[in-house]
Amino acid sequence: PSTATRDDAGRLVVAGRDAASLAAEFGTPLYVVDEAEARARAARIKRAFDDAAASVGTTVTVYYAGKAFLSGAIVRWVTDEGLAVDVCTGGELAVALAAGADPARLGFHGNNKSIAEIERGVGAGVGAIVIDSEIEIERVADAAARAGRVQAVRLRVNSGVHASTHEFLATAHEDQKFGVSLDRAVELGTRIRSHPSLHFLGLHCHIGSQIFDSAGFAESAERLLAAHAELSRLAPVPELNLGGGFGIAYTSVDEPAPIEEIAAGIVRAVAIGCREHDVPVPKLAFEPGRSIIGPAGVTLYTVGTVKPVPIEGGVRHYVSVDGGMSDNARTALYGAEYSARLASRVSAAAPALVRVAGKHCESGDIVVDAEYLPGDVAPGDLLAVPATGAYCWSLASNYNHVPRPPVVAVREGVARVIVHGETEAGLLARDAGLTAPDAPPTVRLVEGNPA
Ligand code: LLP
């Protein structure tokens, strides 16, 4: 499950650069992204949905879900490949705009957008704001009216379908914070339409993440289409957005269906539902994040200590690396599974059961829970953890005052920093108790007020 391959000498290579030389040049921990792989995945997913949509006589917009990993470079890659961009905070909006994304091709999500964020979105001319609650209808309508604009909006609906890896659950109501319940979709859609400063695009639904097939999406589409059809009786509803969540292989046991199959399955379900409800097939929209950037990333770490710990029936080697939950929180947060490989050399040593641990002061600070690595893995060795392109940098923290690592993109053997790493000095500089211990208590660092 990786963008990293081995060359003839057995060295691990990412997009034409060997891992050891990347580590030597940029240090570890290091996030490495294979640009060609990210672009190819974006293009393939777009093509899969374009083809599926065309087969039922409609079109589709594929948004890259920036929460997975957002930076200026990636915005340019995905927009080059014909994708739109989905943001969910003012910060993500700022990155997308600064990177030159066409505002009309931005979608703006969030269950608690501030009035200021809504105003920024409206003012920038974002193509769609996703209304997540009843309260937001008036907030967005008022912001648009104040700006003298008509803002296109979607209504996020909770379909009662929740999917997460392999299986989906379908209930009448889901107990979670996003969206409005399906049984209010018609009422609230109608209310949106009553505002002259809003243009109702249609319903939106996101059923979950790391999903391997189309069944949950199909179930959700079927449920949404009843409300979509009812709203269509009053006036045409141009669009239906079914969110993101397409899964990737983190380890060799993960086998997501090919995206072409998933796209075809979802679009077929939509077309059948539309026929049943006697409405035209709307334009479609999707918001994949992980499936575009996840497999294109790999994290490099240097081994610091190795500690054999007796366990029932054998021994587990705790291999501790120079990063951990501050650069990849997913194992600690979700029990996510990753694999690891020895990247700096080839070893003929017999495999040993290893747990790759981080350097943080927390026993849950694990990067890879269980892996077999050559039994002679030793301090100074370089490890590569594949499939870390999504939700690793974006969930990174400074726990234990560890600076965030840089992100390096490699393309045809050429590496360049796309996000600078932090430094210890940089972290200290933010500490007002160190830099200005005698400042009067009213001094506060706010936006537009540089230190
Ligand atoms: N659209 C909406 C409205 C979403 O909430 C999300 C993800 C996506 C699209 C993109 O989903 P993707 O295709 O990337 O699965 N931190 C978690 C994942 C959180 C996903 C949140 N929403 C993780 O690391 O697994």
UniProtKB/TrEMBL annotation:
Coiled coil: none annotated. Its cofactor is pyridoxal 5'-phosphate. Substrate binds at R290, R330, Y334, E362, Y391. One of its GO terms (molecular function) is diaminopimelate decarboxylase activity. Keywords: Amino-acid biosynthesis, Decarboxylase, Lyase, Lysine biosynthesis, Pyridoxal phosphate. It is an enzyme of class 4 (lyase). Its EC number is 4.1.1.20. Signal peptide: none annotated. The modification N6-(pyridoxal phosphate)lysine is found at K67. Pathway: Amino-acid biosynthesis; L-lysine biosynthesis via DAP pathway; L-lysine from DL-2,6-diaminopimelate: step 1/1. SUPFAM superfamilies: Alanine racemase C-terminal domain-like, PLP-binding barrel. GO terms for biological process: lysine biosynthetic process via diaminopimelate. The keyword Lyase applies. Pyridoxal 5'-phosphate binds at G245, E287, P288, G289, R290, Y391. Specifically catalyzes the decarboxylation of meso-diaminopimelate (meso-DAP) to L-lysine. Homodimer. This is Diaminopimelate decarboxylase. The gene is lysA.
